[in-house]
Amino acid sequence: MDATPIIQAAAKLKDLAALYRDVRQTSRALGLPLSDADATVQSMPDASPAKWHLAHTTWFFETMVLAPYLPDYPLFDPAYNYLFNSYYESVGARHPRPRRGMLTRPSLDAVYAYREHVDLAMDRLLQGRVDVQAAALVELGCHHEQQHQELLLTDILHLFAQNPLRPAYKAPEPLPVQRENSAAVRYLEFGGGIVEIGHGGNGFAFDSEGPRHRVLLEPFRLADRLVSNREWVEFIADGGYRNPLLWLSEGWAKINAEGWTAPLYWEPVEDGYCAMTLRGMQAVDPAAPVAHLSYYEADAYARWAARRLPTEFEWEHAARDLPPVGNFADSGRLRPRPAPAGEGLLQMYGDVWQWTASAFSPYPRFRPAEGAVGEYNGKFMSGQLVLRGGSCVTPAGHVRASYRNFFPPDARWQFSGLRLAEDL
């Protein structure tokens, strides 16, 4: 008798099948506004073509789930293992990341045919008896695809920003701009002490969110809202990009080498700034959270404001009892929005990812998973900083208090901003 644990085709498996269908349909919908050319071009080495995102997420299910767990599964095209592998060295050679935009073939239609081929096979798999390990890989693959849904949008924005026509991904009607003064920032106090950090209990989490462990926090204060565009304009006007005393050495070298004088996509106009958005060129909303900042810029602003960035442990401790609701991709806005009225911590989720002062490093007792999926997060625990909270292009339901995003300190093309902290 086979001793492999089996999930029967009952409620849990039906939920997993529904999650899979929803995620895959969402990705398909994200691709609908794009032409084959839109989906093929790569704007920089750190970004990927939309077509590649759609194919790579499909490759994950084919390679990690179908090939080992669905008997007699026929590969759609063996060459795709080379074209659409991302960084899984143990799986085989792969097309160089900076040259993904050279893949004019397969066409976008061929990639959709690939997705349909895999979806039909996944439907067969999920209608039967699925062992526990396969089910865990399906769930991981769904959350992995949600990550790529966000990357697809941020990468398309970066691509369209390079086009002099400034095309809009979504209907470019102007969104309302709140020009009156926003509420003054308030700081909420947290007493510190020994707290538990990391994912615990039921529900999905990536491996880097655990194990749950104890951390000693000193008493601190955390701003009740995100730093706004209006406040960032004050930083610019006060010479924030020209004062070397505010900047880390690598950050000062970077802004001078790249000529940074404002957040990515900002352009000065007569009455303020405009910025490229997924809705085309739009006026910068003074009351909305500032976005598209590097860690260097966030750190310099915090120093200018006589504050600091929170650690990821302070952020998680503050957010642990808050529901993960906010301005996510499902709102359709695809831009940060001003802080709502209210008491307590606002904008903890959605709008913009929040830089923290913490390096992306393993928690105590962390061990990568066995096999190819062990390359998922652990291999990136060097030279990256942690961001928390999600953004306006993060899929709803994808983040939680323990979720750790990570990027190198000079990354700006993501919807990344900041919240201030200070010591008590």
Summarize the structure.
The chain has 424 residues and is of the alpha+beta class. It has helices spanning 11-31, 36-40, 50-69, 80-84, 108-126, 132-161, 229-237, 249-258, 295-304, 312-319; strands at 6-7, 130-131, 187-190, 193-197, 213-217, 220-223, 266-269, 272-277, 280-283, 353-359, 385-388, 405-407, 416-417, 421-423.
Write structural notes for this entry.
This protein has 424 residues and is α+β, with helices and mostly antiparallel strands. It folds into 2 domains: 6-161; 187-423, Alpha-Beta Complex (paralog of FGE (formylglycine-generating enzyme)). The chain has 10 helices and 14 strands. The strands form 5 sheets. Strands 12-11-10-13 form a 4-stranded mixed β-sheet. Strands 3-6-14 form a 3-stranded antiparallel β-sheet, with helices on one face. Helix 1 (11-31) packs antiparallel against helix 5 (108-126) and helix 1 (11-31) runs parallel beside helix 6. The longest helix is centred in the middle third of the chain and has 30 residues, at 132-161. The chain is globular, with a radius of gyration of 22 Å. The protein starts with 5 loop residues before the first strand and ends with a strand. The relative contact order is 0.14. Residues 1-10 have low confidence and may be disordered.
